[in-house]
Amino acid sequence: MPAPLRIAVLASGRGSNLAALLDACERDALPAQCVLVASDKAGAGALRLAEATAIPTLVLDPRDYPDRAAFDHDLFAQLATATPDLLVLAGFMRIIDGGALAPWVGRMINIHPSLLPKYRGLHTHRRALAAGDAEHGASVHFVTAELDGGPVIAQARLPIHPQDDEESLATRLLALEHQLLPAVVREIAEGRIALVDHQMRRDDVPLDAPMQWRDGALHP
Ligand code: GRF
After folding, report:
1. CA of 91 to the centre of ligand 1 (A)
2. What is the pLDDT of residues 41-64, one digit of tens each?
3. How far is the CA of 13 from the centre of ligand 1 (A)?
4. Quick one: which of 132, 201, 137 has its CA closest to 172?
5. Has 112 been annotated as catalytic?
6. Which of 97, 99, 148, 214 could lock 72 by a disulfide, CB 3.0 to 4.6 Å apart?
7. Closest CA relative to residue 140, chosen from 99, 87, 65, 196
């Protein structure tokens, strides 16, 4: 059996997606090991979760750095010392400097609560409701210098009901995120998905459109 994928998770908030990843590792549903949880917020719930499960943590305060690039370069340098195979942004609420992330392209993914390319950035649930969309969803994508703009690996969709508000939509979508993210990390851990020369490949075949999470599985 190949060695488990070493993942480092970056999170600014409560860490429910981190919890879903750890749970999948625990259940042997994900051949991965979380080697570090990093945050820009000392109060992040994700850090408490890591501490409770004895996972090393890293906290850096952006206010201690002269600018974004200085913070990001130090963050990635320190992350590298944990020798992760994959960086997972799970609610990491910062724009990352393009130069700092460049060496990690193809080895860093993000979960975003919209059906990208729709609604990059913040307030995605509110914007989907305001637009009168019939469906909403979440995307897991490779991170590139373009905010929420890297190649989308997979998406999960859900219908928007007439009685939905921002909170109900966020709650239902989060439950789907907790399935989607471990499923994508699993495919990366199994060596099935890769970004090669800006082209996504699955099982060595070009993946030209995001996979869809349906009935408990990813479908090309
Ligand atoms: C999720 O909705 C994720 O899609 C977005 O930030 C939120 C993080 O939630 N990027 P949590 O901290 O994992 O609970």
Report:
1. 4
2. 999 999 999 999 999 999 999 999
3. 7
4. 137
5. yes
6. 97
7. 87
Provide the residue type at 144 as one letter: T
pLDDT bucket at 1, cuts 50 / 70 / 90: low
The Cα 47–Cα 143 span in angstroms is 22
Confidence of residue 6 (pLDDT cuts 50, 70, 90): very high
3-state secondary structure of 68: helix
Residues with C-beta less than 6 Å from any ligand 1 atom: 11, 13-17, 90-91, 111-113, 138, 174, 177
Q: What does the radius of gyration of the chain's CA atoms come to, in whole angstroms?
A: 17
Reading the block at residue 201, the tokens are: 């490949």
Mean per-residue pLDDT of the chain? 97
Residue with CA nearest ligand 1 atom 7? 91
Ligand 1 site-directed mutation target among 9, 14, 17, most atoms within 8 Å of CB:
17
Tell me the mean pLDDT in the region 8-28.
97
pLDDT in tens, 77-127: 999 999 999 999 999 999 999 999 999 999 999 999 999 999 999 999 999
Domains and CATH numbers, the chain: 1-104 (3.40.50.170), 111-220 (3.40.50.170)
β-strands 152-159, 211-214 pairing? parallel
Residue with the nearest Cα to atom 12 of ligand 1? Answer: 15
Which residues, 6 or more positions from 163, have their beta carbon under 8 angstroms from its beta carbon? none
Q: How confident is the model at residue 2 (pLDDT cuts 50, 70, 90)?
A: confident
